[in-house]
Design brief:
The structure holds two protein chains of two kinds. By secondary structure, chain A is α+β, with helices and mostly antiparallel strands. Helices cover about 25% and strands about 20% of the residues of chain A. Chain A has three domains: about 130 residues, D-Maltodextrin-Binding Protein, domain 2 (3-Layer(aba) Sandwich), CATH 3.40.190.10; about 120 residues, Alpha-Beta Complex (Dipeptide-binding Protein, domain 1), CATH 3.90.76; about 170 residues, Dipeptide-binding Protein, Domain 3 (Dipeptide-binding Protein, domain 3), CATH 3.10.105.10. In chain A, the strands form seven sheets. Chain A has a seven-stranded mixed β-sheet with strand order 8-9-10-1-11-21-12. In chain A, helix 10 runs antiparallel to helix 12, helix 11 runs antiparallel to helix 13 and helix 16 runs antiparallel to helix 17. Chain B starts with a helix and ends in a 7-residue tail after the last helix. Classes of the chains: A alpha+beta, B mainly alpha. At the A-B interface, helix 8 and helix 14 of A face helix 2, helix 3, helix 7, helix 10 and helix 11 of B.
């Protein structure tokens, strides 16, 4: 049930909260001192996972395809850490009064690295490519479901039509999944795009070798950096290499021995060690979208009773378990979505409290008052059993250890938690039928509309359509607020609506928030200017390395 | 003329029959392997299209397109026969996940695996022959090396790999941590992969050597004034090789399996990681392609081993 992305992290709660806001820049520029950016050189970065199925972010089901193609692809707009949209390949845009049509004015003089000029037809070709059934898009197309079509109204103006008002469009457009590829390259067969992607970005892809690495060289003619970037003109680095090192300890060793300049996913247990090394730094970024949460099945089994759900949430000390297991690297979650998501409701923090005695009373009230020989609660002779669809094979960041600790804690208040997912195949048959009591996963997306993925009636999984509403919650109010939020591009109004949704679903205990997914980036102090994109992936346009 | 020709033809026929039987059984082995792999993957619960889509939300049109593109709507028997037919024409099909033909997916990875297997195999043979020849029948050296071999057989190659990396790459900086660039990146993975092989092979060789060294002909050779090392190399080793050659069959399967772990630890490209990913993702065509290649290799190795027996032991040639 988990996405293909791995995002471990590590840092004390304190540092994490302060750093998340100011990002890497402060720390990095302090280290850089007076010596400004140096042109040239190669930066080698190691990641733990690759989009082995397909590199093209329009098609790929792997969200890490965004990290791999971002250096080569620009987007129409960019998104900053505060959720504000900035011009990039589009210099300005307007939204029609009925909120169904977006009109973009495009930047002049932009060229793709294969020499093709960027124009309105290129934008249409890209959006049409994403939604075309032949593309079999498994991620990007899902973000613009109401897309009706694009209309080229001039060489540099394009209108994008939707079937209904759709406010998350711009933030989706800012992700690498909507990176603008050369229309000439898009004419190739889909399979060829899975190997090589051509865009207008600051780097040009040389070669992607599966299970090994992807290499890039600088695009010398680049002169259209997004607003808010650290500099303009071509990138500083001559070359960029992203290596795939799946083994945690090996990736860490490659960093500490200076064989690579930076790594993704420092194991939480090693964060202290890396920080203590004067040659290295660790920076963090909380990923936007759904936290790593547990979702109870609200339609059948013991969790259909709200009191039982509340008892499970309040009778287990989630926050302490998370802090101890991850050495403070991950913030315990309070809402279904992360603090870096636009529309996050901060007032939820500290609202639920660990209270096993109250949990016991709730269970008594719900009728689970008996006890059997092993100490589990019973009702009419049936044991209080929770069937958890936990996929061990897909577990990462010690989620399996975490699950076992939760299981042990649940036993103390009388729950018999059992892991029932079986193999991936078995689980994929079971999940759409709702044949489970509890499910766990995280769901990244740089928009509050994540809540519609997680709790909208339309995303309850069925045999015909996979969905993320694992709680199988169907609440008319929630659906109404989510739909209203789609209708307006007014950020304050959207935040208000999303706050209502968060309060309702936490009030109903339709979700047990666990921890906030945080990207933990380890880097040599000689590497500077590694930035972040909306999905909390590192970017390398402003990056440079000190020459020895 | 005819009187001479007839027996010659008969001899040839007599020689050809075992060869034909051999060829027949080889084909059966290959067919069996492919069939078992196909059945195994289809009999496990869950269907392929769910797996192809995974946790993504796709529209019903995209789903229908995927089903049609991969022919998943056809009956299993038809899918099986179509596959067999294509394999006979040398076409291994198209991968579900990798967006490329199976043959090119395997082709892209096989070189790096073969490099690794050959280098660790060579290393293992050289080291174990040396160790066995030098320690057989020598009390102290034997005791020390037996101990080392026991450790070598017992440690998991995953752990050995990490240990080698920690010392020689992260610590001393002598070799790169990740594989695939130049010969220096081949050293540590080859050593890690060779450790259990050396440990087993040298034990078997030494055992054989020690038995042989007690034979009367060794005494004869010594009495002719041959040096100890000469006796061991010229006479005893050849006898000790027979059981070791038999082990080579096991070795091939070990190297294939070990590749999965070693390639992951050293971030190397290769068949092992390709197979692992294909099995996890239920990428049927790739799994079956790898099974086919592996069983082909097995068949070829076994034929080569039979020939090697003849080369090592002249007594078998007349039979």
């Amino acid at each position: 049930m988990s996405r293909s992305r791995l995002l471990p992290a590590g840092l004390s709660l304190f540092l994490l909260l302060t750093l998340a806001a100011c990002g890497t820049r402060g720390e990095k520029s302090a280290a850089a001192g007076a010596a400004g950016p140096v042109k040239g050189g190669t930066l080698t970065f190691a990641v733990n996972t690759e989009p082995s199925t397909c590199l093209d972010p329009h098609q790929s089901p792997a969200d890490v395809a965004g990290l791999f193609t971002r250096p080569a692809l620009d987007s129409l707009v960019s998104l900053d850490a505060e959720g504000r949209i900035h011009p990039w390949l589009a210099t300005k845009w307007t939204v029609s009064p009925d909120q169904k049509t977006y009109t973009f004015t495009l930047r002049e003089g932009v060229k793709f690295s294969d020499g093709t000029p960027f124009d309105a037809a290129a934008v249409k070709a890209n959006l049409d490519h994403i939604v075309a059934p032949a593309t079999k898009s498994q991620l990007a197309a899902g973000y613009i479901e109401p897309y009706k079509g694009s209309e080229v109204t001039g060489p540099l103006t394009v209108k994008v039509h939707f079937g209904r008002p759709y406010s998350p469009f711009l933030s989706a457009l800012a992700t690498a999944y909507f990176g603008i590829e050369s229309p000439r390259s898009l004419k190739q067969p889909q399979d060829a795009l899975c190997k090589k992607v051509v865009g207008s970005g600051p780097f040009v892809i040389d070669e992607y070798v599966q299970q090994k690495s992807i290499t890039y060289h600088r695009n010398p003619g680049y002169d259209w950096a997004p607003e808010g970037a650290g500099h303009t003109g071509p990138a500083y680095l001559d070359k960029l290499e992203i290596k795939v090192i799946t083994e945690d300890s090996v990736r860490l060793g490659a960093l500490t021995s200076g064989q690579v300049d930076g790594i993704a996913s420092v194991p939480p247990v090693n964060v202290k060690q890396v920080r203590a090394d004067p040659r290295l730094t660790v920076t963090t970024r909380q990923a936007p979208g759904g936290n790593y949460n547990y979702y109870p099945n609200t339609t059948s089994g013991p969790f259909a009773d709200k009191r039982v759900r509340e008892a499970f949430r309040d009778g287990i000390d989630f926050a302490t378990i998370v802090r101890n297991l991850y050495f403070g690297a991950f913030q315990p979650a309070a809402s279904p979505i992360s603090p870096s998501t636009d529309g996050y409701d901060r007032t939820l923090e500290g609202r639920t409290e660990y209270d096993p005695a109250a949990a016991g009373r709730l269970l008594d009230e719900a009728g689970w008052s008996g006890r059997d020989a092993e100490g589990y609660r019973t009702k009419d002779g049936r044991r209080l059993t929770i069937r958890w669809g936990f996929l061990k094979a897909a577990a990462r960041e010690q989620r399996d250890t975490l699950a076992e600790q939760i299981q042990a804690e649940a036993k103390k208040i009388g729950f018999d938690v059992q892991f029932v997912a079986g193999t991936v195949n078995e689980w994929l048959e079971r999940y759409p039928k709702g044949d489970y009591d509890l499910v766990d996963f995280s769901w990244q997306r740089a928009d509050g509309d994540t809540l519609r993925n997680l709790f909208g009636t339309s995303s309850i999984p069925t045999a015909a359509k996979f969905g993320q509403n694992a709680a199988r919650l169907s609440d008319k109010d929630v659906d109404g607020w989510l739909s209203d939020a789609l209708d307006t591009t007014d950020q304050a109004k959207r935040a208000e609506l999303y706050a209502k949704v968060q309060q309702r679903v936490t009030g109903e205990a339709a979700v047990f928030p666990v921890y906030v997914f945080t990207y933990l980036l380890g880097a040599s102090r000689k590497a500077h200017g590694i930035g972040w994109e909306p999905q909390a992936y590192p970017t390398f346009y402003d990056a440079w390395v000190e020459q020895a | 003329m005819t009187a001479v020709a007839v027996p010659a033809a008969r001899t040839r026929a007599r020689a050809a029959r075992p060869a034909l039987v051999r060829l027949g059984t080889s084909v059966m082995v290959l067919w069996g392997a492919v069939t078992v792999a196909f059945a195994g993957l289809h009999l496990t619960p869950g269907n392929v299209v769910d797996l192809l889509i995974g946790s993504s939300t796709v529209t019903p049109e995209v789903r229908a397109r995927i089903v049609a593109d991969y022919g998943l709507d056809r009956p299993l028997v038809v899918q099986y026969l179509t596959y067999l037919g294509r394999v006979l024409h040398g076409d291994l099909g198209q991968s579900y996940q990798l967006h490329q033909p199976v043959a090119s997916a395997i082709g892209a990875q096989v070189g790096s695996s073969v490099q690794l297997m050959l280098s660790s195999f060579t290393l293992a043979v050289v080291v174990s022959v040396t160790v066995a020849v030098l320690t057989a029948g020598r009390r102290w050296a034997r005791a020390v090396f037996s101990g080392i071999e026991l450790v070598g057989v017992s440690i998991p190659s995953f752990w050995a790999g990490i240990l080698l990396l920690t010392v020689f790459s992260f610590g001393l900086g002598l070799f790169p941590a990740t594989g695939g660039d130049g010969p220096e990146s081949l050293v540590l993975p080859s050593v890690a992969m060779a450790i259990p092989v050396v440990a087993t092979l040298s034990q078997v060789l030494r055992e054989g050597l020690e038995l042989t060294l007690e034979e009367p002909f060794v005494l004869t050779a010594r009495s002719r004034g041959m040096s100890d090392l000469g006796v061991r190399l010229r006479h005893a080793l050849r006898h000790a090789l027979i059981p070791a050659v038999t082990l080579a069959g096991w070795l091939v399967s070990y190297l294939f399996g070990g590749a999965v772990i070693i390639e992951s630890v050293f971030s190397r490209q290769g068949i092992g990681r390709l197979t692992l990913a294909a099995v996890v993702n239920k990428d049927l065509p790739v799994v079956m392609g790898v099974v086919l290649i592996a069983s082909l290799l097995y068949v070829v190795i076994n034929i080569l081993l039979d020939l090697l027996y003849l080369a090592v032991d002249p007594r078998l040639r007349g039979a």
